[in-house]
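Continuing the batch. This is chain 6 of the set; chains 1 through 5 are on the previous pages. Same settings as before, nothing changed between runs. Recording input and output for traceability.
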Amino acid sequence: MAFGNLLNPTRPSISEINVTPLVDVILVLLIIFMVTAPILQTGIEVNLAQTRTVAPVDPEEAAVITISREEMLFYRSNPINFNELGDWLKREIGDSGKAIFLQADEDVRWKTIVSVVDEVRVSGYSQINLVTKPYLEK
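Output for chain 6:
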């Protein structure tokens, strides 16, 4: 049974779907996702030092400590206080003996890197790997 016009019963009913509003909504959603996608990227911008030997690291699987250019400390993408680093590692890793990966911006002072490594070792973790990027020859 089709719905017809009560004022003009001889006029046929409209059985087509108007697609224009649907297309408008989808285009607006597409624009919103295109604008917000770069904002949702996780991670800390770090310019790593270059070396000739590099092993790939999956940041989702590994325990990654990052030191940013401003010498701020992060565990994965969470900012942490230097004094709470040992507690963070014990809470997140436990006593699993997992390797800890340390990545630091190439402009970070050596003293800061050594302090972080020392704090990790004092917390009971001895397997610390430094993360670098591949050396690009010109």
